[in-house]
Amino acid sequence: MKRSSLFWLPALVALAFPACSWFKSDKDSSPVENPAAAAPKLVGRIASIPADRKFVLIQSYGSWTIEAGTILTTRGLDERSANLLVTGESLGEFAAADLQSGSVEIGDAVYSRHIPKPAASPDQIEIRSELPENQQEINTENVQKNN
């Protein structure tokens, strides 16, 4: 091989690699980010624990927009954690939650993990009749008339 052809070989290779992008499909091959995999969000701290230790009061960091029935987690010192069930009762910056498992202390961090509700599939949609439930369907077949 001639020395001049070896000189042009790296230049041709360098030009060929960008040309490969011309053949790339228009579809984005990156995986779709799953919203359920979002990191937990710090929403408040344990402000008060009544003597019976069956529920807690949470002081929220910001507006309280968490629905009743949502599961929250807490994290405290010494790897202490607990699961809380939001009751839906709130007053100002404080909200109540039932202690489901674990142990809590005043000052423990409270986290929420938003998991979006799945869209209803056509199989799960209920088909309702046009009549209300309290109205009976009238059968007009085989009715005798008195003349």
Question: What's the SSE blueprint?
Answer:
Elements lengths: L2 H17 L21 E8 L6 E6 L10 E5 L5 E11 L2 E9 L6 E4 L35
Antiparallel strand pairs: 1-2, 1-6, 2-5, 3-4, 3-6, 4-5
Describe this structure in words.
Strand 4 and strand 5 form a beta hairpin. The chain is built from one helix and six strands. With 147 residues, the protein is mostly beta strands. The mean pLDDT is 75.
Q: Please state how the strands of the largest beta sheet are arranged side by side.
A: 1-2-5-4-3-6
Measured as a percent range, the helix fraction is 10-25%
Uncertain spans, ≥5 residues at pLDDT below 50?
none
One letter per element, helices H and strands E, the order comes to HEEEEEE
- Say how many strands there are: 6
- Morphology: flat
Structural class: mainly beta
Q: Largest sheet, if any?
A: 6 strands, antiparallel, barrel
Radius of gyration: 32 Å
Distance between the termini: 116 Å
**Content of β-strand:** 25-35%
- The number of helical segments is 1
Mean pLDDT: 75
Please summarize what this structure is.
It contains one helix and six strands.
Protein traits:
147 residues, mainly beta, 1 helix
